[in-house]
Amino acid sequence: MLTSVWLLLRTMLPLNMCNKVMWQWWTLLGLLFMCSLGVQCVELTFELPDNAKECLYEHVEKGTKAILEYQVLVVTGGHYDVDAKVVAPNKQILYNEVKKQFDSFEWVADMTGDYAACFSNEFSTFSHKLLYIDFQVGEEKPLEGLPEHHTAMTQMESSSQVIHENLNSVIDYQTHHRLREAQGRKRAEDLNERVLWWSIGVTFAILVIVIGQVFVLRSFFSEKKPSEMMNHGFS
């Protein structure tokens, strides 16, 4: 693709201007590559056993905005729900929900310290659950080098910033799409397994009924032996 763009520019622009445009293209691609390497992910997926409780701790500075998002992905029997709680460093409960499949909670820290996000599956006696968590603290960091400018950003820098924000939005949309796809696939597999066992049971019942009807009809039309008829007559 870049070769085609290079040939098209050579036919339309002078050589020095063409080299300048291509250099800007390569600079933009390099910035995008560095942005992709600099993105920090705070997402994780873990298994929550039955009768278990897990807590995750995140250090948040005072006045910093934090967002907690969670979703139950896979359940080995039972329902897609979990108990969630967010506790401040002073043991104050900021968020408390019971038997939720997914939810999102946003708050601004009133104090500096370690905030706990606890998830409980204690109400379940046999079902394990796979839980997805996205814990974001603070605002999205700008591109490296942009805050150092005291003048207006160039068109290339503005375009890089816009592309950086759009790529973050695309990553977020793709993550949620993969979560919905995994959950839908799990439900489809569970439904397929239930239909399979139900079909096997129905097939077995039909075979038993058919065999029973064959024996019953056979007994109706079977001829009795003469000895049996004589014994029946004397009786």
TrEMBL record:
<feature type="domain" description="GOLD">
    <location>
        <begin position="53"/>
        <end position="137"/>
    </location>
</feature>
<keyword id="KW-1133">Transmembrane helix</keyword>
<keyword id="KW-0472">Membrane</keyword>
<keyword id="KW-0732">Signal</keyword>
<feature type="transmembrane region" description="Helical">
    <location>
        <begin position="195"/>
        <end position="221"/>
    </location>
</feature>
<dbReference type="GO" id="GO:0016020">
    <property type="term" value="C:membrane"/>
</dbReference>
<keyword id="KW-0217">Developmental protein</keyword>
<keyword id="KW-0812">Transmembrane</keyword>
<feature type="signal peptide">
    <location>
        <begin position="1"/>
        <end position="41"/>
    </location>
</feature>
<protein>
    <recommendedName>
        <fullName>GOLD domain-containing protein</fullName>
    </recommendedName>
</protein>
<comment type="similarity">
    <text>Belongs to the EMP24/GP25L family.</text>
</comment>
<dbReference type="GO" id="GO:0012505">
    <property type="term" value="C:endomembrane system"/>
</dbReference>
<dbReference type="InterPro" id="IPR036598">
    <property type="entry name" value="GOLD_dom_sf"/>
</dbReference>
<dbReference type="InterPro" id="IPR015720">
    <property type="entry name" value="Emp24-like"/>
</dbReference>
<dbReference type="InterPro" id="IPR009038">
    <property type="entry name" value="GOLD_dom"/>
</dbReference>
<dbReference type="Pfam" id="PF01105">
    <property type="entry name" value="EMP24_GP25L"/>
</dbReference>
